[in-house]
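Thread title: Can someone regenerate the structure for this chain?

I was given the following input by a collaborator and told the matching structure tokens would be attached. They weren't. Posting the sequence so someone can regenerate them.
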Amino acid sequence: MKIIKTFGYDIIYYRPPCGELNLFTLYYFKKYNLKLVLWSVMVGYWSKYTSVYDITNRILKRVRGGDVICLHDGRGSNCAPLKTIELLDTVIPCLLENGFEFININEFY
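Best answer:
Regenerated them for you:
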């Protein structure tokens, strides 16, 4: 937290890696008055064999109103950040056409 604050950022939200919480993370979560962010839809898109089409279909099959979709911008194979950007270009219009709305996380809390 101290390092991040030296760059002028205030941390408000915390998404634990893999959604795992333990006594230490709960302690710091409370100590720094962070808001916990979890997700309800994870689509497993990091394989180099998974296409944007496959991922889009997985999201459209799993997502319901009020869901939070967990996506990453790296760590996967085959240009994972580019794949995520392509996915967003495809899936956001589909979700909007199906009546979904997007809100800022500040509106969520």
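Strands lie at 13-14, 35-36, 41-42, 69-70.
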